[in-house]
Design brief:
It is built from 13 helices and four strands. The chain is mainly alpha-helical and 266 residues long. The protein has two domains: 2-170, Fido-like domain (Fic-like fold, Orthogonal Bundle); 188-260, Arc Repressor Mutant, subunit A. Strand 1 (31-32) and strand 2 form a beta hairpin. Helix 2 (49-60) packs antiparallel against helix 4 (70-84) and helix 4 packs antiparallel against helix 5 (91-105).
């Protein structure tokens, strides 16, 4: 999982990542505050990482761990992987991906609508505060013997509850929107594009559409635009041989955000 997450450029992916090794003499491996540079956390020594990871994986697959409620198991797993900090980089993303996998495989699958990253980024200070739980920075002074994880588990499950609530509200909005005769046959991407144009109150470019659709490839969006023009959802607003922007098709010009199931801006 870490090897997949850490690929940043073209090339062959390695099958497994290598645990971090010893740092040079006089160099401290630590997690620092991105603004002040102050040390937030000093992980266990590299020599202890393989043993800690072995114990962690054994617990993760144990009967006692699998008897826990799925969200609690996911919360503990994310915390423990972050605490061991087995890799030089990418530990946070890997821990959150592991938690998401545990949630999805345990029946909490929201088909990509739930993103731990998205909700944590809204309040990073609270995220890190709940990870630290007021413990000393050095692993061996507060985390070697498992601390009371209640603050972290409470934060993790509260964030989950917020995400599920927002997804439920969005699903309800789309259900209500489907009652409008013009909207009933639209797929989610088409509704998002109509929403984008209504909020901007002007023609929009394929690049703007791609950004709205979670960074969909521009070439794919251009191909979709051709189909949307053919179906009357959009019509060209500029350009002849190569259309540079699009506006609502004639049949959709009277639609409102409320008709689409949205009350808010982007």
């Amino acid at each position: 999982m870490h090897a997949i997450i850490e690929v940043r450029r073209a090339g062959r992916r390695q099958k497994y990542s290598v645990y971090r090794g010893p740092t040079p003499a006089g160099v401290l491996f630590a997690v620092r505050d991105s603004v002040t540079g102050a040390i937030d956390y000093i992980p266990p020594e590299a020599a202890d990482v393989p043993y800690l990871m072995k114990d962690f994986v054994e617990w993760l697959n144990s009967e006692s761990a699998n008897e826990l409620p799925v969200p609690v198991r996911a919360a503990i797993s994310a915390y423990q992987l972050l605490t061991i900090h087995p890799f030089p980089d990418g530990n946070g993303r890997t821990a959150r991906a592991l938690a998401t996998y545990i949630l999805s495989s345990g029946g909490y699958d929201l088909k990509g609508f739930y993103s731990l990253e998205e909700f944590y980024w809204h309040d990073l200070t609270r995220y890190y505060a709940n990870l630290q739980m007021g413990l000393p920075p050095l692993y061996y002074e507060g985390r070697a013997n498992p601390p009371d994880l209640a603050p972290w588990i409470n934060y993790f499950t509260e964030t989950m509850a917020l995400a599920f609530k927002l997804v439920a509200e969005k699903a309800s909005a789309h259900y209500n929107a489907a009652r409008h005769p013009l909207v009933a046959g639209l797929n989610p991407n088409e509704r998002e594009i109509l929403r984008l144009i209504l909020v901007k109150n002007r023609p929009v470019t394929p690049a703007e559409m791609a950004a709205t659709l979670n960074g969909a490839p521009l070439r794919t969006v251009r191909r979709w635009c051709e189909g949307w023009v053919n179906s009357g959802i959009l019509e060209p607003a500029s350009g002849v041989e190569r259309v540079r922007s699009y506006q609502l098709g004639a049949r959709f010009k009277e639609l409102t955000l409320k008709d689409l199931g949205y009350e808010d801006a982007l």
